[in-house]
Structures are given as C-alpha cells and as structure tokens.
Amino acid sequence: MPGPPAHPIFGNASLFKNKTTEDFVEIFVNLANEARAKGANLMRTQVMNRIYVWPLNGKTAATILESSTEVNKGDDYSFLVPWLGGGLLMEQGEKWKNHRKMLTPAFHFAKLEGYLDVFNSESKILIDCIEKAMETQDTIDLFPFFKRCTLDIICGTAMGIKFNAQIEHHHEYVKAVEGFNKLTVEYSLNPFLWNKFVYWALGYQKMHDDFLLVLKKFTNDAIVERRAALASGAVEKETSKRKMNFLDILLSSEESMELTSEDIRKEVDTFLFAGHDTTSTSLSWLCWNLAHNADVQERVYREILEVFGEDPNEDVTSEKINRLEYTERVLKESKRMFAPVPGVQRKLTKDIVIDGITIPSEGNITISPTVLHCNPQVYQNPEKFDPDRFLSEECLKRHSYDYIPFSAGLRNCIGQKFSVLNEKVMLVHILRNFRLVPKIGFYETKPLFEVRTQRRCVDHKSNHNIIGCRKAVAWNPDEIDKKVLEKEWTRK
C-alpha cells in the first residue's frame, strides 16, 4: 500500500516526534502530494499496530463515504468516549440511526429561520464587545470573541438559555474544550502515552480528569436549568417537535422513556462542542482570508450593502441572506482552504477494496477534507484564494466529494446548515462595522490539526495581529511588537 516507509514496530511514529499540531497539517499534506505525484489515489500511515488509510481524491473517498455499513468511528475517537461517547458524533448502529432521526427536526430549514433572532442579537453584542475592547487596546484577538459569541448562540438556540459568555469572559468551559482537544491529538500520535502508568505519571490523567469535570458540569447545569424552566412554566412547553429546540426534543424523549438522563447529557455535550467550536474556527479563518484578499473583502462588503443597505444595525433576514451569491462562494473557498473539520475516521468491520487495494478489517480510513481540498490535480494553485472555484460550471468539473467541509454520506454533519447560517449572519454584522487589514504575512498564522478545532487562528508561538480601518480591528496578539504595530486605523 502506498505510504511512507514504516518501522516494523513503531510504524510512522517517528514522523510526529517532537512535532506539534501546527506541524501535522504540513506533514499530512506533503505525504499526500508525494503519493499523488507517484500516481497513487490513497496512502497508508501507521502508528504502532494502527493502520490509517487516506483516500487522496473524492472518487476514492466515495467508496467509504457512500457505504451504508462501514459507519463506525475509528480508533482515535476512543479518547473522546468519556466525554462524548453515546452522542450523535460517537454512537453507532441502530442507536445512532434512532438518535439522528429524533434530532433532525431541530435542524429543519423552517426551524433555522427561528434561530435568526438569536444570531442577530448575539452578533450585535459581539460588535459592542469588540468596540468596547478597542477603547483601551490597539489590537484585539478576535478568536476568543468569536468563541464566546458562538457559545452564547448555541445556548440560546439549542438550549433555550441565556448564558452571557460574551459579557462574562474567561469561561472555564471554553478553556476545557481547548485543553481536551489538544490532549486527544497528543494521545493519538504518541504511543508511549497509551501506557496508563506513563499517562498518569506525566500528569496527563489529571489534566484529562480536570477538563472532563468542567465539561460535564457545564452541560449538566444547562440541562437542569432548562428542565426547571419547563417544569415551572417559566417557558412555554411546545408539543410539536418541529417547534422545539434541540434540548427540549431531548427532554421530551426522556419523558417518553426513549432517552436516559445520561443520553441527554452526551447529546448536549456533542452539540455544544461541535456547534460553537467549528463555527468560530471557520469564521476566524474566513476573516483571515478576507484580510489578506482586500479585493475580495471589498466585493463582499459591497454585496452586503447592496442587499442589506447602509444601516449597520439592521437585522439579517433569511430572504436577504440568500441573495448573497458572491459571499456564498467566498465562504466555500475559505472552507476549502481551511476546513472546519480536518478529518473524520472510520474503522472497518470487514475487508474493503478501494482503488484495487484490499484494506483489512480493523483498519482505519481517514477521510480528510484538509488533504482532499489541497489536491493540485483538482484545484489548480490550491494555495490561492479564489472564490470562482465555486461557480456552478467549475463545480461540475470535479467529483462532488472533492469538496466535503462537513464530511458527506450517511454520517455527514447534522448541523452544517445551522453552522453556515450562523457564520453568514456574524460575517454580515462584522463587515458592516469593520474593515479587516493584515499586519503580518498570511502564513504567519498556523492551522492546527486537532479534533474538530483543527483550524485555529491563534498561534501561541508568535505575535499575530490584524488591524482595521472602517473601525479598528486587530487579530491574535498574545504579545504585541510595538515596532510592528502602529495606529494605522481611522474611525469611520
């Protein structure tokens, strides 16, 4: 099977020695391009006795994505079981099918329109928070602002509770998500951590348990609050699932004995995590791309003004947002370059033949948007930001699975329409108030290959910032180099 030379015991573990999740993206992309250059349509990597097979184009990925039987999650997901095991992300078999069917009404297009009020109100709070921060700061790290906003949106839409993360900063839940994700990748690619004693002795087990405690407590508190509000009559109890929010559907299923309290906790954990984290990451990279492509940003801004008018406080409506044709292409191109999910994984239950090669049962198939979206055989100059790749005539030239930012097939992301709508509303509010202008090079901000939070706008090893002029906006300064940063912005 094509792939880098592997040690008979450790496999390709040496590739990841002394590397961080910043390095993983480059490693996997380079390996994929080397394999493609040799005519391969898939490649193999190995860590100890775990085999990972990577489809290198959409046609090859179709075999596993279209399978109705090979839908089980891969080995690397095992680390997430104490947190998300039993939720829609992790569940398998008939239980997964039943939960998916049960939760689908929460993401019906008619239900999404009802979420617009929360999208708009929280986006306006986001703008106010950024403007307030600008009164005392030359630069602002936007990523935490986006994280807090999307967390408030998830709590308001899916849980029916007001959380106020945007007002009360430094929330432990956000930090715990970050920490747990990083542990997941470190554990997956460092075989010595698979030894329970080593894991405990090096302090990883304590970090794991501390993060898990914060994550579960946050979710349980949200469930208790909503259950009490429904019981007291503080909020009206709906009878139609199509009118219920995500959590109310789960609670009604608890009453009918379809779900246990632990089932509900796992589903809420899954949706809270996936819903706020990927959207904020995707929006961050979108703004980064717009900042480095001023002509594209200006065209998006003009389209927004044409559709919504000059008033920066006007609410975004579903009718108008669907008229943002160019902006839609820009969002897609940003997700091509920086996919919200770096890869999904399947563990085979039986042997399967892909591109003439038999992959044994118990092997893992890694379907990686990060790898597929950079394919130079599909996307000419893949490192170039070009929204016209998503003109209808261009899309027809490639396989439908050459672009899968939310995966595809039976286990595609149930919340993808929710996420895209959320991102669009936030972007409209941001660009009606701010111009994004870069102060450092495009590649000085590094993507991270991590579980669901894989594309991060914060590189803690260097000083990142973006400063704006319609109003001042700045990006990613853990520490600011005053020689580089001058007040090159003016009030609108």
Describe the structure.
Pfam families: p450 (PF00067). Belongs to the cytochrome P450 family. Heme binds at residue 413. This is CRE-CYP-29A4 protein. By secondary structure, this protein is of the alpha+beta class. It has one domain (13-467): Orthogonal Bundle (Cytochrome p450), CATH 1.10.630.10. It has helices at 21-37, 58-65, 81-84, 93-103, 109-114, 116-134, 142-159, 172-189, 196-201, 204-232, 246-255, 261-291, 294-308, 318-321, 325-337, 369-372, 392-395, 416-431; strands at 42-47, 50-55, 344-347, 352-354, 357-359, 364-367, 437-438, 466-467. The chain is globular. 47% of the residues are buried.
What would a concise description of this structure say?
47% of the residues lie in helices and 6% in strands.
Number of separate strands: 8
- Large-scale geometry: globular
CATH topology: Cytochrome p450
Strand order of the largest sheet: 1-2-6-3
Radius of gyration: 22 Å
Provide the succession of SSEs: HEEHHHHHHHHHHHHHHEEEEHHHEE
SS strand fraction = 5-15%
Please state the structural category: alpha+beta
Share in helix: 40-55%
Average pLDDT confidence is 83
In DSSP terms (H or I, runs of 4 or more residues), the helix count works out at 18
The separation of the N and C termini measures 59 Å
CATH architecture: Orthogonal Bundle
Overall number of structural domains: 1
The main sheet comes to: 4 strands, mixed
Sequence stretches where pLDDT stays below 50 over 5 or more residues = 452-492
The CATH superfamily appears as Cytochrome P450
| Level-1 CATH class name | Mainly Alpha
